[in-house]
Q: What sequence folds into this?
């Protein structure tokens, strides 16, 4: 993604930006949903059907979970949809999992580790963000890796 930052815009599905008034011209993207997100949703639903879990209830709760997550993406930038997809599947189907004490502790440990990684990522992103000018615009950033040509 660092070598080709525009790649996601070309392979992802776009969620249009809502506007208060009708506008003409190209639709501005609000968020991008990558093809892998649909693949993961499909894999989760295959597992839900195979193990006779609550697939309909999961689908009902998945729509608002993804909507809330897309709204979060407007403030945090690009974030993977796998997190709300996985959490929704786990929360809706929690009664189906009969875990022993060791499995519960491992699940809690992985959850805490995930929260710490997400928190650290947000903190690092906030620290690395360019400072804002008083007018609300970020200072210009050069995208070229080449130094500017001299006037010779």
A:
């Amino acid at each position: 993604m660092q070598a080709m930052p525009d790649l996601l815009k070309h392979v992802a599905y776009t969620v249009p930006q809502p506007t208060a008034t009708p506008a003409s011209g190209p639709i501005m993207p609000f968020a991008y949903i990558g093809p892998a997100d649909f693949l993961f949703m499909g894999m989760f639903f295959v597992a839900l059907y195979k193990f006779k879990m609550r697939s309909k209830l999961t689908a009902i709760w998945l729509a608002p979970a993804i909507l809330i997550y897309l709204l979060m993406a407007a403030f945090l930038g690009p974030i993977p949809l796998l997190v709300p997809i996985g959490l929704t599947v786990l929360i809706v189907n929690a009664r189906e999992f009969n875990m022993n004490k060791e499995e519960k502790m491992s699940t809690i440990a992985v959850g805490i580790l995930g929260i710490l990684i997400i928190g650290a990522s947000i903190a690092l992103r906030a620290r690395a963000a360019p400072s804002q000018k008083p007018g609300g615009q970020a200072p210009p950033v050069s995208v070229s890796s080449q130094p500017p040509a001299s006037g010779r």
Q: What stands out?
A: The helical segments are 7-11, 35-50, 55-76, 82-92, 101-128. Confidence is low (pLDDT under 50) at residues 141-146.
